[in-house]
Structures are given as C-alpha cells and as structure tokens.
Write a structure and sequence with these properties.
- 2 copies of one chain form a homodimer.
- Chain A has 2 domains: about 35 residues; about 130 residues, Nucleoside Triphosphate Pyrophosphohydrolase (Alpha-Beta Complex).
- Helix content of chain A is about 15%, strand content about 45%.
- Chain A contains 3 helices and 10 strands; from the N terminus they run βββββββαβββαα.
- In chain A, the strands form 2 sheets. In chain A, strands 4, 5, 6, 7, 8, 9 and 10 form a 7-stranded mixed sheet that branches. A 3-stranded antiparallel sheet of chain A has the order 1-2-3, with no helix packed on it.
- The radius of gyration of chain A is 19 Å and the shape is globular.
Chain lengths: ~190, ~190
C-alpha cells in the first residue's frame, strides 16, 4: 500500500475534436504517462459553466422533489431541482432561479452543502449542491416542456425514498445522504 | 402540490445519430409531450452493458480507495474502484475482476448496496455498487496505463474523506454515504 505522494500528470501530446453535434463536442486526447505508457482517451467537452442542484426544505422534515422526463433513460425520474448556470450568473442566483422555474418557490436561506463532479474520466462537469430553506412562493417561467410534478418527502423517511425505482440519479442520492449528515451536525450555524 | 400519478411518456417522433467518434455516439431525439409541447433533445449512447463500483473493506473500519488519472478533468481523482461490465459477464464477476485489476485484492463476501444512474437527462448509464469484504490478495492485469495508488481510509473518519479536494465524484460520494447507512442497519444479515 503506497503512501499518498505528489503525482506527475500525464503529458498531453495531442488533442483534437473528433465529433460534434449541436450541443455536444467530443475531444480526443493523446497522453503520455510519466512511466512512458501512451493512451488515447476521449472526453466530452461541456459548457464549462457548471451546474447547481437545490435541496428545497419546506420545513424541518419536508423535502421537495420533482419528477421530470429524462431523455437519456426515456422515463420519468424523481430528483432534486437542478440546472446549468447561465454565463455571468452567480451560483446561488442560478440555484434560486432553478428553484423558482422548476418548483415555484424561492428561498431566503441558503447553505452550500457540497461540490460534486460526474464521471471525471470523460467529463468535466461540476455541480454545486445547495440547501434552500425559508421558502416562499415565487414562480419563474423556465424552458420546461411541461409542468413538473412536485413531490413532498419526509426526511426521516429517506430510506423509502432511496427505495423508489425512479430515484436513482447518483447526484440526487449523494445530495440526500449529505443533507442527512449535515442536519445531524450542521457546520454553518 | 400534485399527488403522484401515472405519467404519459412523450412520443418519440424522430431519432437520428448526429455525431459519432470512436467511443461515443450522440443521438438526437425529437419528442412530442402529452400536452403537445415539442422538444429536441440530444442523448449520448452508451455501451449498454452497465458498470460496477466496489467499496473494498479491508476490515470493519478500513476502506480502500484508488487515486487515478481522469482525462475529463485532467487531474488525479480519489474514488472507489469501478469499471464497465464486459459483454456476457455477470455483474458480481465484473466487480471482483475490477477489484483485482485496480487494487490487487479479490473478495469472498459480496453485498449489493445500490443501483445508481448518472445524468439521466442525456445518458443511460447504470452502475451497481457493491460492498466487498473478506478480502484476499489476488492481482489481475488490467488495461491501466500506470499502477494505481491505493489509499486506506478509516470509515469513522469519512468527513475528512468528503473534505478531500480530489474526492468529488458523485457516485463515489453516494457510495460512501450509502455504506455508512448500510453499516448502521445492514439489511442482509
């Protein structure tokens, strides 16, 4: 078992775009590792703006979730409101905007819970997770094709939420479990 | 707040491949929602085989993690061993193979912890998370460009793991927090 030590990043020998659609670009990267090994990887270029996820708490024991259509899996999935940060938009403003667009509430009290990424082997997709409390009704029009179903869930019944067949997104699961940990020992108050 | 009700999936009006590289294909899907709204989405076609993640427990309080180069973020990331299931391979066999390739151990005792997905809005990427116990040394040669650094972490110090700047992958965080919950009240024993 090695001890942690500084790592030498592989050298990027060449990079080129190998596919592009309207929204997605794929880049091929030729790498030479510090031991001499050479590999060719593909990575998906994101918008670079990052994204936010919001855990809205209606009261001390009630979470709000949404059920929305997901094209990747072609089904409806239960999860927390989320979305991309607009260019120039502050992170927390993006979180409050998504909350109003997707769920019809704004929040007065915000806590930054954690930053996560997704599949760093081929993505560079950062997401900041916020807890939103002291909610009040406020609706903004988003670009959603249909109104989202809003679902209330008691936090103390989180195991039944984990058991829902449509609550499977790793970032929503991480958010739920980090929230539980935070509520046991909040570090900001 | 609506009650949960059966959803009518949008109709897929048209679909076509709009980009393809050596490893990645992007499909455009034209959809008509049940309220008449029309949208065009892009989704990334995966291998369809699914993936596994393994939480190796060296003893009751020691996790094993790996630190490996990630091309998407161009840095080294700390996380649990994981990989794609080979065609025809059973899920748990894939988990035991990845464990041997990446960390040099096999396991006698396996528990299926949870199934997660990743960004279902544009991916169909399923990952099954296993807990591996009763480990014994066994090395298989994988396709890794360099040996992976293996890192031990005490479970009861999980908050310091969450605080590591290179432990940010949502699926590893979900796995860690689900493990804690499982160890508090294991449901298989």
């Amino acid at each position: 078992m090695e001890k942690s030590k500084p790592k030498t990043l592989p050298e990027i020998v060449a990079r080129k775009e190998v596919a592009r659609s309207r929204l997605i670009a794929v880049e091929q990267v030729d790498l030479k590792f510090s031991n001499g090994a050479e590999r060719c990887f593909e990575k998906i270029k994101g918008s670079g703006q990052g994204a936010v996820m919001v855990i809205p708490m209606l009261d001390d024991n009630t979470l709000l979730l949404i059920r929305e259509y997901c094209a990747g899996t072609h089904n409806y999935q239960l999860g927390f409101p989320k979305g991309l940060i607009d260019p120039g938009e502050a992170m927390q403003d993006a979180a409050n905007r998504e909350l109003q667009e997707e769920i019809g509430f704004a929040a007065k009290r915000w806590t930054h819970l954690h930053q996560v990424c997704m599949a760093p082997a081929f993505f560079n997709a950062r997401m900041d997770i916020f807890v939103a409390r002291d909610l009040y009704e406020s609706k903004l029009q988003g670009d959603e094709p249909e109104p989202m179903e809003v679902v209330r869930w008691p936090i103390n019944d989180y195991r039944s939420l984990l058991a829902q067949p449509d609550f499977t997104e790793a970032r929503s699961i991480a958010a739920l479990m980090l929230l539980r940990d935070f509520l046991e020992a909040p570090d900001d108050e």
